[in-house]
Amino acid sequence: MLELEGLTAGYHGGTVLHGVDLTVPPGTVHAVVGHNGAGKSTLVHSVAGLLRPTAGSVRLDGTEVAGRAAHRIARAGVGLVPQGRRVFAGLTVEEHLRLSYRAPSGGAGSVPSWTPARVLELLPRLAERRGHRGADLSGGEQQMLALARALLSTPRVLLLDEPTEGLAPVLVRQIHELIGALAGDGIAVLLVSPSPSLAASCADEISVLTSGRITTRLSGSSAREDPAPLHEALSLSRTGT
Ligand SMILES: Nc1ncnc2c1ncn2[C@@H]1O[C@H](COP(=O)(O)OP(=O)(O)OP(=O)(O)O)[C@@H](O)[C@H]1O
Prior knowledge:
By secondary structure, this protein is an alpha/beta fold. It has a single domain (about 1-240), classed as P-loop containing nucleotide triphosphate hydrolases (Rossmann fold, 3-Layer(aba) Sandwich), CATH 3.40.50.300. It is built from ten helices and ten strands. It has helices at about 40-50, 70-75, 95-100, 115-120, 125-130, 140-150, 170-185, 195-200, 220-225, 230-240; strands spanning about 1-10, 15-25, 30-35, 55-60, 65, 80, 155-160, 190-195, 205-210, 215-220. The chain has a six-stranded mixed β-sheet with strand order 6-7-8-3-9-10, with helices on both faces. A hairpin with a 2-residue loop joins β9 (about 205-210) and β10 (about 215-220). α3 (about 95-100) packs parallel to α6 (about 140-150). It starts with a strand and ends with a helix. The relative contact order is 0.19. The mean pLDDT is about 90. It binds adenosine-5'-triphosphate (ATP). The site of adenosine-5'-triphosphate has 12 residues, from α1. Belongs to the ABC transporter superfamily. GO terms for molecular function: ATP binding; ATP hydrolysis activity; branched-chain amino acid transmembrane transporter activity. InterPro entries: AAA+_ATPase, ABC_transporter-like_ATP-bd, ABC_transporter-like_CS, BCAA_Transport_ATP-bd_LivF, P-loop_NTPase. This is ABC transporter ATP-binding protein. One of its GO terms (biological process) is L-amino acid transport.
């Protein structure tokens, strides 16, 4: 379970995130949607420890982790798939997986542990490309690899920063399905994206982020039934209201 309370963060003395509250129970997907510059990556980075929050709380299964170093937060069970994928051009798929794999230390709780073999079973396209270098992978394959790397730490919480950016519709659908499968496995997924359709298709709960504040909350099921309120909230969010 991931719980954010009053999370506040920014850069160079300025505030970008203003007291964000949200909860992501295990086995659910919470999507935060917002326009460019709303603070989505800042939110993800503050949870992952890449940016130190200036106030508020980040609790992982009840344990406060706000302000801890990124590697400690990762070890506590938070996996990050960063925006832009950040795969190494010169390393093969297999080398990426080998470097990212950490044999379980027994602290993974009820979540089954991920191994390179299990990850390749989930992502057959990566299995076919296991000998290819990062530079030779398509955008979608790089996204799968970024996801595979995050899974190999057997996260209880998975942070996905714009996972479908720049992908063709068929790959976007695959990513939806994967997100659903990972939540089905018990992982708490926090997804940030500018795409209301991605949020509506796979989230249990949706928050609209406007200039660093959550301005609207909707259930995923209501957004699937009628996407109009989500679109309206986003369009109001563009004007910062
Ligand atoms: N390293 C940084 N130093 C200073 N300001 C930053 C830094 N990173 C982001 N910002 C500023 O913080 C604000 C929020 O940026 P952030 O990247 O979190 O938005 P976003 O919602 O993820 O946008 P996008 O959809 O374009 O990725 C923006 O005004 C941005 O210019």
